[in-house]
Amino acid sequence: MTARSDSLGHEADPPFETPPTKPLEALFRPALVLMSGRLVGFVVAFAIPMVLARVFDQTDFGTYKQLFLIFGTLFGVVQMGMAESLYYFLPSRSESSGRFVFNTLVTLGTLGLGSLLGLWLFRNELAATMNNPVLAELIMPVGLYLLFMLMAVVLEIIMTIRRQFVAASISYALTDVARALFYLTPVLFLADLRVLMLGALVFAFARLAATVVYVGREFGGELRPDRQAFAEQARYAVSFGIAAIIGTAQTTFHLYAVSNAFDAATFAIYAVGCLQIPLSDFLMTSTSNVMMVNMRERLLAGDLEGAVAVWLDGNRKLALIFFPMVTGLLVMAHPFIVLLFTDTYADSVPIFMVWTLGMLLVAILTDSALRVFALTRFLIFQNLVALGLVALLLQWFLAQFGLVGAVMVTLVAASVVKVMALERVRRALEVELARLLPWKSLAVTALLSALAAAPAWAVVATLDAPELVVLAVAGPVYVLAYYFLLRHFGPLERGEKEQLGRWVNKPFDWLRGAA
Fold first, then answer.
1. Which of 141, 217, 409, 444 is the most exposed place for a label (fewest CB within 10 A)?
2. Quick one: how far is CA 401 from the chain centroid?
3. Is residue 269 part of a domain?
4. CA distances from 329 to 24, 455, 479 (A)
5. CA torsion sign, 206 to 212 to 214 to 217?
6. What is the CA angle 218-373-321, rounded to 5?
7. Tens digits of per-residue pLDDT, 330-366?
């Protein structure tokens, strides 16, 4: 079999044989291992906004949100695709792994130092743009935090690529637990943003130290610079990096626009409405990472049909969790937001409901598939389209619908580019529209999620009790209803139904054994 060329014109490595694996073994179990580790972090991470919303007043909480908006924006942009490029190169260049990792660490460190300098030089201009002069005093800690976290981003990526799924799972869990401890412990003694940033810096430095130790043990003497490897990475990463810059601008444009137009307290209301659910992030990230590795291996082996199977299986399984999660959040949005952030942030509920709908689009892993095929130029194009739509329509939506309009326009733009991306993935996979997605499975999952929501909605609408009690009743009602429908009518394979039954019975088996 002859070697193929990738979409950048480079000659791909000769295909190699991979042991045949069932979709459940190839994708779901490794992803589940990663998910289980991050589940601990998901629970702990929610303590951060809950505590800070109660410790800080609305203005300080808005300032905290602005600081980490700056960090999150630069964290997505400054990587320039170097860390993500490891998913492309390490599976096929095992003999050069240490060189690719070394190049990545040096590049991320250099870009982090440049960002630190830029933040310091333009701190006053940035504070004026975001309508909050306090930001200028706290920008230096944000720059240092960014530097440490950038260099440490490779940790779980390398573990996942090398199939050390248990280690990656533990690392995710420990990271999130440590983040919560270092963020919250200082502010419980002194409610000050400077104290919080000091704790954040200690956490980030500890994570960087752990990354350096792991990389040193994993690669040892293989860690050395390689110009040729760097040139290959740069050619791959530059397009992806540009796409990330445009994509980050598109996804954060509405946040900066609201920050510029309103004060910090109003921005706090909007930022709470745009709450990032850690559960959705780690579910998507874990499944996406494993899917990319498996699709890449099958493509290198010349097995396009196997790559299609992994793509379909990944989207089907992710929808089994995302669809009911989104439906449940919509039904329980008011008690959920009020419980987390108090009645002060009740105005965030409509914003949160619109924001939550966007999670349905995240369940379709088009960006991951495009990266597998090195279609980074298309990522640039689709992100430009989304950015253009948001910039063009945001002021009109804001004028017509208020704060809710700012998030509505991002949902419209995301929907347009998702359709575009699906068509490009269809052509890359060489399939007809009928095989592009597991359409029947998605439809059945959506229907079951809606049916399961009916009793939970009745509880929320009729139960006059504190928010914690409402959620404690409505949540289990919804989960049990969805489990029953999924077990009997859901798009599950026989082995998956048996595994689901074993998971549910495990606590009861443990109790019987203890008795």
1. 217
2. 28
3. yes
4. 28, 14, 12
5. negative
6. 80
7. 999 999 999 989 899 999 999 999 999 988 998 899 9
Residue 432 phi, psi dihedral angles, 5° rounding: -80, 165
Cβ distance 152 to 208 under 8 Å?
yes
Domain coverage including residue 252: 56-273
Confirm if 204 and 145 have CB atoms less than 8 A apart. Answer: yes
Rounded Cα distance, 181 and 47, in Å? 10
Q: What is the model's pTM?
A: 0.74
The structure tokens listed for 175 are 């990271």
* Residues forming a β-bridge with 5: 11
- The sign one gets for the Cα dihedral 486, 492, 497, 500 is negative
> What are 23-76's pLDDT values in tens digits?
444 445 565 555 555 666 667 777 888 889 899 999 999 999 999 999 999 998
Q: Report CA-CA distances (Å) from 425 to 21, 257, 287, 422.
A: 23, 32, 18, 5
CA distances, 361 to each of 38, 252, 356, 357, 378 (Å): 21, 17, 10, 8, 18
Q: Is 146 left (phi over 0), alpha (psi -120 to 50) or beta?
A: alpha
Supply the DSSP symbol for 26. Answer: I
In terms of Cα–Cα distance, which of 73, 77, 84, 88 is closest to 244?
A: 77
Residue 228 belongs to some domain of the structure: yes
pLDDT in tens, 130-179: 999 999 999 999 999 999 999 998 888 888 787 777 777 788 778 888 99
Q: Judge whether 3 lies within some domain.
A: no
Which alpha helices (H) appear in 402-436, and where do they start and end? 403-429
Collapsed DSSP state (helix, strand, coil) of residue 27:
helix
The residues pairing with 394 across neighbouring beta strands, listed in sequence order, are: none
Closest CA to 361 of 244, 246, 280: 280
Distance CA(425)–CA(382), nearest Å, equals: 13
Query: 194 — alpha (psi -120 to 50), left (phi > 0) or beta?
Result: alpha
Which alpha helices (H) appear in 15-134, and where do they start and end? 23, 29-45, 47-55, 58-78, 82-89, 97-121, 123-129
* Helix spans in 301-402 (H): 304-331, 333-341, 349-357, 359-362, 366-372, 376-401
- Sequence-distant (6+) residues with CB within 8 A of 198 are 141, 186
Residue of 303, 419, 437, 421 whose CA lies nearest to 368: 421
User: Residue 204 burial by CB count (10 A; 0-12/13-18/19+): exposed, middle or buried?
Assistant: buried
* Total count of domains within the chain: 1
**88 is a domain residue:** yes
pLDDT score, position 506: 66
Report the length, in residues, of the chain. Answer: 515
